[in-house]
Amino acid sequence: MSGMLTFLRVCLLALVALSPQWVQAADSDSAQQNGDAPIKVNAAVELPKMQKVLDKIKQQVSGETNDTRLNALNDLALELSGDADALIQGLIPQRAQLQAQLAVLGPAPAADSGVKETSEVTTKRSKLESQKSKTDDQIKQAETIKASSINLSAQIVNLRRDALKTQLALNAGSIFGPRFWAPLTNNQSDDSEKIGDFIDELKTAASLSFEPGWVFGTISWILAAGLVATLGRRYLEQFLAWVGINHLPEGRLRRSFLAAATALTTLGAVVLAFNFLDLAFTRHDEVVDDVRVFADKLVGLSIFCGLIAGLGRAFLSTRRPSWRLPQISNEVAMSLKPYPPLTAALVFIFQTVENFNSSANTSVATTIFANGMTALLIGATALSISIRTNRVRRRMIQEGHQPEARSTLVGLIQMALTLIGFAIMVALVIGYITLARFLAYELIWMGIVFGLFYIFSQLVTDASESLFSTNNASGKRIQASLNIDARHLGQVAALLGAIGKTLLLLAAAMALLNGTFGSATPIELVQKAIEFWGGKGLESMNIVPAHVVNALACLAVGIWVLRSVKRWLENEFLPKTTMDKGMRVSLITLFSNIGFVLVILMTLSIMGVQWNKLAWIVSALSVGIGFGLQEIVKNFISGLILLTERPVKVGDLVSISGIEGDIRRINVRATEIQLSDKSTVIVPNSQLISQNVRNATMGNAQGVATITLTFPLDIDPQQVRQLLLDVYNDNERILETPEPSVSFKDLTSTGIVLAVTGNVASPRQVSGAKSDLLFDILTRLRKEGVALSAPQTMIIERKDGKVVLQDAAE
């Protein structure tokens, strides 16, 4: 791990070297902490400057429509808010110091107290009170500037979103029309002049870097960038692979670690290389600000290009197919190998062109042309990926090879890739260039977010399981240190994995809803499409199409999360607890019912349903509950009572109204009872609450096997008693505790009635045990010559006018 730490230190030092302001800030902080430069806040000078900056930003925002300039103004507003907050944090200690000094002087004595103080104390108190009042006013003014800056930033964001929505709905002309290709065919003198001026600025910056005294540094930084992007990435990746093989426990953690390491090393190498190049050409003091801003944008763009290339290499893993994280056949992986670097190159080239146009302030036609070419190539790449993947799979089938089994999620991803690529092409053909460009970059951004989520969710899950596994050294040490059972470690691992996935899911959702390549989000794009095609919503119920889209998205995500958590509880977490199966099923069912209710309520809330406008629905439900829905509601409430109080649970052997069987499922309305012949009886939940129910297995009850026999009066009772006890004691199903017993039940004219009783482990074993016992008893009785008493039947006959009773045996 020392090599990894060394690499991180080199990265941090390189990043710090790129920004002299960071170094200055760090030196300033260090000096302040060491007492060399005490903190001194001159609010009287800073506050007027901040107010002027705020007023200037407001003035520029009021008449600005360009998205790039609005973004820059938003950054200035946020920076101003941070400066105001820093000023407040600097003034608060000064106010506390003044308050402490006033507390030492104490309050001014009352006029009638007879106490007099010196004029110096009075003057000092007045001066301190004046300074404290002035400081309070400065803090309030700074807080006002901070709040105004934050509000201005929110307004700028709304302006950018509205501008983007407007641009998405504008038709700039089809790519097949002459209007789109006009920048190439027509002589745009203004654009040519602007582009030429900016190229001259770039050439000047490059020439400054090769002036005497700067050549060695420039060449050194260029060589460092090349070495980092090639040898540095390769050897670091090999080192991390060696670490994974030799220092990580065997299992899935090695694969997920290598995938994450591959993505991060590629990202780090690309970003460091571009930072070194930026430092090579813009470190000269005479480089103009436009060139510096353009270079900074390229450095920021390198992050996304590095992520695209790194995630592609991590997913495909063509050099180590056995370590490939997703289930992708080697043929498909090799066919897709060129696409990640190709996509990264396309994004970098066309984003560079767009940034160049923005820096050169070219015309709208040139900007639209660049956006259209960007969307065209990215959309064609997306369709090419889908077509090539299907072609490789078909060829594998024709050659007799079975391709990998694709999951539903993979199929949905490929379908979405195809549909979005097709939508980009359609938008370009009909002339919605901005919309096509937006879809192209949102497709790339969603791919980056989903790729990072997949890799790191696998890494978190595998790391949690490996850390607490008793098969590894870490798990054994934790178990020995805490002296806990292995299943508890499994529960902790499952919980940590679920918490990690939840945090990653929230981060992914926030990233998707705050898209990077555009100021609008995918949800807003759907909303715009609905508004574009018309439809003002159900105004009477306060339901608008935008709310409906958000509500449907919430419903889909909520159901997916609910089912995922349910599967996790059912398959991973609850089986590792000491709960019995019935308790686990009851908890899962209760969680599902409550979860669905919460998801539905949240969906209705997001949809904007106002319950005061649904009085007629509530009235209809009331009438329905009073008549037809009464039994349904009663059974539903009874089902909740069964799940919470648990008088019966899944797996219990119950009998109710002459029905006896095992409970297989407790639903919302009814309970399923499986009989001995495997048929199922549906019993309403209300009957299990209102009627007498016999639960034969509640409390781990034992079964009782009792056999009652009638013997003749002339038998030897002790001999028969011992024979019956021997039969019970020899049977393997009869428990030793409590021991079997024989009781004298009755003495009748037909004989002696004896009952022999023994316990079995479960009521379900009673029937089989009694059958075996009866076979054994009859066999031994016949062997010992002991007969059972025959039932006596009396026959009534009339002889000679008299009634005669005669035994049937005679």
From TrEMBL:
Q: Which residues form a coiled coil?
A: none
**Highest rank taxon of the organism:** Bacteria
One Pfam family cited in the UniProt record for this chain: MS_channel_2nd
Q: Write the signal peptide boundaries.
A: 1-25
InterPro entries attached here? DUF3772, LSM_dom_sf, MS_channel_1st, MscS-like_channel, MscS_beta-dom_sf, MscS_channel_2nd, MscS_channel_C_sf, MscS_channel_TM-2
The protein's location, in the record's own words, is:
Cell membrane
Residue ranges, compositional bias (Basic and acidic residues): 114-134
Give the way it sits in the membrane: Multi-pass membrane protein
Which organism was this protein described from? Pantoea coffeiphila
GO MF terms, alphabetically ordered: mechanosensitive monoatomic ion channel activity
Q: What is its main location?
A: membrane
Q: Which residue numbers delimit the Mechanosensitive ion channel MscS domain?
A: 632-697
Give the UniProt keywords, A-Z: Cell membrane, Membrane, Signal, Transmembrane, Transmembrane helix
Annotated stretches, region: Disordered: 109-134
Q: Name one GO cellular component term.
A: plasma membrane
Q: Where are the transmembrane segments?
A: 214-236, 257-277, 297-316, 336-353, 365-387, 408-432, 438-456, 492-513, 543-562, 583-608
- Please state which protein family the record places this protein in: Belongs to the MscS (TC 1.A.23) family.
Spell out the protein name for this chain: Mechanosensitive ion channel protein
Boundaries of each DUF3772 domain copy? 139-200
What Gene3D superfamilies is this protein classified in?
1.10.287.1260, 2.30.30.60, 3.30.70.100
Please state every residue range assigned to the domain named Mechanosensitive ion channel transmembrane helices 2/3: 589-630
